[in-house]
Every structure is written in C-alpha cells, then in structure tokens.
Design a protein that fits this description.
Layout: E1 5-9, H1 16-30, E2 33-40, H2 56-84, E3 88-94, H3 97-105, E4 110-114, H4 129-137, E5 141-144, E6 156-160, H5 165-173, H6 175-178, E7 183-189, H7 204-211, E8 217-222, H8 229-240, E9 244-248, H9 254-260, H10 263-270, E10 275-278
Parallel strand pairs: 1-2, 1-4, 2-3, 4-5, 6-7, 6-9, 7-8, 9-10
Antiparallel strand pairs: 5-10
Helix pairs in contact: 3-4, 8-10
Length: 279
C-alpha cells in the first residue's frame, strides 16, 4: 500500500494554511498527487413572514458572494502551489461541505481536514465535518488541530490500540506513514490480559505485524484509573512528544458517543496534534 492521492479540504477559515502545510508535507514525502476540494455553500435564506416570497436578487447576491469566496480560495491555493512548485488540482462543488468532501474522499488515499475552530464558526460552520467524512467516505482522514501543526508530521507516532476493527483498519491505512516514522508507540489503555481483543500480551501482536513491515514499534499499556481514556491518550501524547495519533473512529455508534461520550469525540474536541483515523 502507498499514499499516491491526497485530498485537502480548503475553506475560508483562518486555519486553512496550516492544514495545507501538512497536506503538502505528506504529498512531498510520499510523492503523491495533491488535490484541493472546496464546497460552495447554498444561499442562506432567512425566514420571511407573510406569503414567504423571497426576492430573487437576495438569492443571487448570496450565490455570487459564495462564488467569489470560492474564486478567492482557489487563487490563494494556486498561488501557494506555484510558489513551492508543486503539481496540484483544484476541485469545487456546490453543496454541504461534509457531503462534498466525503464524496471526493472516496477517490483519495488520504483526506486532510481541519478541526473546527470554536472562535471562527462562521467560516467553519460544521464542527462535525471530520467525523462525518470519516464515517461516510470509507477512507482514512487526517484531522489537523485548529491551533496548528508542524509541516512535517509522522516522525513520532502514537497508535491508540484497542484491538477493534476500526483500530485495525487505521493502523493498516497508516502503514505508509508508520514505515517512515522514527518512533512508533502502540498504546493499549485498560487492556484485558489474554482477552480475545488484545492477545496474550496487549499490543504485542500488532507490534509484530508492523515489525514485518519494517516498522520499529514499541508496545505499551496503561490503566486509566477512572480517568477518561481520551485524557489518558492526550497525556501520553505530551509525555512522548508525539506529533501524530493513529486511531480507529467511533467503535461505538456515533449517536452513543454524542450522548454518552467516547474517545473519538474527546480527541476531536481536545486534540493537540493531528489525528489519523479510520472507521
């Protein structure tokens, strides 16, 4: 497996340059084609009293503004690509951003999106976009924190391992990155010794699988002691100085996680480094 097609979500938010830096770094490292996707939002129609008549010029003015913003985003993207001399592709489509990105992500090896910035809801109105793309595209998604990230990621990787189908897929989707990493730590939180989900020694079997791909991975385990698992992972990221997390997305239903909490939700809310996740 290799990464040869990378898709990056471009929008009007202040974090787009950091997201693009990460995508460019990965494209260069893997000699991959880089495509940008921009979703043109449908006009927002405020509610009207009376007969519900909506002036046509209002609809058209909003549509024109959306087209202008798309043109500005494309100009910014292509100017940056020309400056660094990278081949690229621009795509845009009208519709909901999560739907547009999910559709295009089906034809990419990796899709780079951003974590929603709570201080910029107008330019990133859908905080659930990373989760919706991960669940809907069937492809791995790399989420970049809104606070930014190093241009080169994947040198020191933490794998959050629980033996699930989703975690297994994430690890194998991330293999091209893991093979290049200087350090990989596989962390099992609250494993059941000898349980069917972890094997006789937690993390050892997946570490052996990775070793056969040339990945030097260290198996580790810990207990949460009534601390949320997401907080345990965040703490270990800091301890290790990791620059990337690999994990399965939504081992439980998304509805359950929204109602009761879960590791995916917690990491997407409080992430400090990019997270590569698969469902």
């Amino acid at each position: 497996m290799s990464i040869k097609n990378i898709l990056v979500h471009i929008d009007d938010s202040g974090q787009v340059d950091s997201r693009l830096d990460v995508a460019v770094g990965l494209a260069r490292a893997h000699d991959a084609h880089l495509a940008a996707i921009y979703a043109i939002a449908a006009p927002f129609i405020p509610p009207y009293d009376g007969a519900g008549y909506i002036p046509a010029d209002l609809i058209e003015s909003q549509a024109e503004r959306a087209r202008q913003r798309a043109a500005e985003a494309r100009k910014h993207f292509e100017r940056r690509m020309a400056r660094i001399g990278m081949e690229h592709e621009w795509r845009q489509a009208e519709g909901d951003a999560a739907d547009v990105v999910s559709l295009n992500a089906k034809y990419a090896d990796l899709t780079v999106v951003g974590q929603a910035d709570p201080n910029d809801p107008g330019n990133y109105p859908n905080p659930g976009l990373p989760a919706e793309v991960a669940l809907g595209a069937g492809r791995p998604v790399l989420v970049v924190p809104y606070v930014g990230a190093p241009r080169q990621v994947g040198g020191n990787v933490l794998v959050a391992w629980n033996g699930s189908r989703e975690a297994t897929r994430a690890v194998n989707d991330a293999l091209p990155i893991l093979e290049r990493a200087a350090k990989v730590t596989i962390l099992a939180v609250d494993p059941r010794d000898g349980g069917a989900d972890h094997g006789d020694v937690p993390s050892a079997d997946i570490a052996l699988h990775l070793a056969r791909h040339g990945v030097k991975a260290e198996a580790a385990q810990t207990v949460s002691n009534d601390i949320e698992v997401g907080d345990v992972i965040l703490s270990r990221i800091s301890d290790l100085g990791a620059d990337l997390v690999v994990m399965g997305a939504y081992g439980h239903s998304r509805l359950r996680e929204l109602m009761m909490g879960g590791v995916t939700r917690d990491l997407l809310r409080h992430m400090t480094v990019p997270v590569l996740m698969s469902h």
